[in-house]
Automatic annotation (TrEMBL):
<dbReference type="InterPro" id="IPR001647">
    <property type="entry name" value="HTH_TetR"/>
</dbReference>
<dbReference type="Pfam" id="PF00440">
    <property type="entry name" value="TetR_N"/>
</dbReference>
<dbReference type="InterPro" id="IPR036271">
    <property type="entry name" value="Tet_transcr_reg_TetR-rel_C_sf"/>
</dbReference>
<dbReference type="InterPro" id="IPR009057">
    <property type="entry name" value="Homeodomain-like_sf"/>
</dbReference>
<feature type="domain" description="HTH tetR-type">
    <location>
        <begin position="5"/>
        <end position="65"/>
    </location>
</feature>
<dbReference type="GO" id="GO:0003677">
    <property type="term" value="F:DNA binding"/>
</dbReference>
<dbReference type="Pfam" id="PF16925">
    <property type="entry name" value="TetR_C_13"/>
</dbReference>
<protein>
    <submittedName>
        <fullName>TetR/AcrR family transcriptional regulator</fullName>
    </submittedName>
</protein>
<keyword id="KW-0805">Transcription regulation</keyword>
<feature type="DNA-binding region" description="H-T-H motif">
    <location>
        <begin position="28"/>
        <end position="47"/>
    </location>
</feature>
<keyword id="KW-0238">DNA-binding</keyword>
<dbReference type="InterPro" id="IPR011075">
    <property type="entry name" value="TetR_C"/>
</dbReference>
<keyword id="KW-0804">Transcription</keyword>
Length: 195
């Protein structure tokens, strides 16, 4: 990486936790300056505007989130065990190596659905990618005779995503992490019932 690329990466890494915690609207230029130690001119010399920083920060947070999941899945052998990683990680995702602030997909989706079309599109793409990854695992489980051939991988995959994101949201909004835990137990049971 050249100096400009390193500076861009530095800005992304330092601002990503802020955007994921405070949201797009809640993150100010001053927050970005404090996090990076750079001037406004240095930040906007590398990014056109706050939108561009926010989009790059979202990509960084999602990449970090999926990297944690992939790392744990790589330790598993069966498809069922790989899928169970989702329930295990999201049951205690605040204690894992997740991005500060929690699930960037949920955080961005709830803030940007009506206010920021570009961020909403990024969040929608992340959900679709996540759903596709789960569906691909289920299809492999069917092909390997680990799961029933009667399953609908797309329906199961989007249901798992919805349960996980709903569980996080309910636990976060109510301040009761036990709700999230209960819902992740349902995800675990759903995965166990695939065979």
């Amino acid at each position: 990486m050249n100096k400009a690329e390193k500076t861009r990466q530095f800005i992304i890494e330092k601002t990503a936790p802020i955007f994921n915690t405070k949201g797009y609207a809640g993150t100010s230029l001053n927050d970005m300056i404090l996090a990076t130690g750079l001037t406004k001119g240095s930040i906007y010399g590398n990014f056109q505007n706050k939108d561009e920083v926010a989009l790059a920060a979202f990509d960084h947070n999602v990449k970090q989130m999926f990297s944690v999941i992939r790392g744990e899945m790589d330790k598993q052998t069966s498809i069922k065990e790989k899928l169970q990683v989702y329930a295990a990680i999201y049951e205690d995702f605040m204690g894992s190596r997740f991005p500060k602030g929690g699930c960037p997909i949920l955080n961005t989706s709830t803030e940007a659905d009506d206010t920021h079309p570009t961020l909403r599109k990024k969040a929608a793409e992340a959900i679709t990618s996540w759903k596709n990854n789960i569906a691909a695992l289920i299809k492999k489980g069917i092909a390997d005779n680990e799961f029933s051939a009667e399953l609908d991988p797309e329906q199961i995959a989007i249901t798992i995503v919805a349960l996980i994101e709903g569980g996080i949201m309910i636990g976060k909004v109510t301040g009761n992490p036990n709700y999230r835990t209960c819902i992740m137990k349902s995800v675990e049971k759903m995965i166990n019932d695939l065979s």
